[in-house]
Amino acid sequence: MMITDREALEGLAVRLERAPAIALDTEFLRERTYRAELCLLQIADAHDALCVDPLALTDLGPLRAALGSAASEKVMHACRQDIEVLLPAVGLVLPVFDTQIAAALTGMPAQIGYAELVRRVTGRELSKAHTRTDWSRRPLSTEQIDYALDDVRYLLPVREHLVAELTRLGRMSWLEEELAALQDPGGYSVDPEEAWLRVRSLKGLDADRSRLAQSLAAWRERRADERNRPRGWILDDAVLRDIVIRVPRTLEELAAIPDIQPGFIKHNGNEILGVISASAMPLVLPRLNPRGAPDPQKTALVKRLSTLHQAVATELNLSPEILATRRDLEQLADGRQDGAILSGWRREVIGERLLAAL
User: What is the CATH number of domain 296-357?
Assistant: First the structure.
């Protein structure tokens, strides 16, 4: 049930190279690190399911050819994090069939969990006994390994069911579009200069503060990567925003920010002031007002688009968020036409109707 030596791993690799479909899942830890630590790899083909122990095997290279081969489909559930974790060990896993994405396109909830999907498709109730297992500890018990293997045992039959359903609905081309986005290796790394866009609290800033937010978030991203520590351990989001809002110019002003730690000031204070200085912030900055009163015309337009959005989702028996988000509709109301809602299959089924409503 558990591969721990090179010879067995090489034997598995040869076997997988002949498999038309491979089910994959991972167990990993990232609570204390910037980069996730791969602790367990679960694999199944049509005949068997087993685990590979990456903590006992220093190199998973023998699996690289099989997991990157176009000859077999890699079946996973909500696979983005798994692909990200596997990327340094075996390269980009492709091609991928994501059962969560496929299930959503059949009309199931957008973020349906694996256990619920298995229950709906196969009628099996999966155990929850080891949901809090520390997968980095060894040895793992037989029960823990068996629990982990449940995460891949049912992926292939679930895939078969979903393909049949999507074929019946005429939506396989939709799935192919969605899955294509998973094959870009650039989607699994963070550009430090783009890191600030992922911080929700850094929205609604003036141009100067936006520039500073970008620089500070980039500094934090690089430091987290260098030290292999979570971003929040380097600098908390709330403190990052406070620095951006207050723009301290001295160590004393920096230390006056609520919740900032003395140790952070001691070890990083001068660097932070250097980032602020390099951002060429003006001495006088505009006050940030609370979110202003909404534009009545835009509000009415978004409401009209939202009504149509809900109606189309009902017609197609899809969760509305599969078609578009509130932000998509707001951007459309602002005149932007570069969003996902106006490309691919979404443009055909809802985008053109939203444009007509505009």
Answer: 1.10.150.80
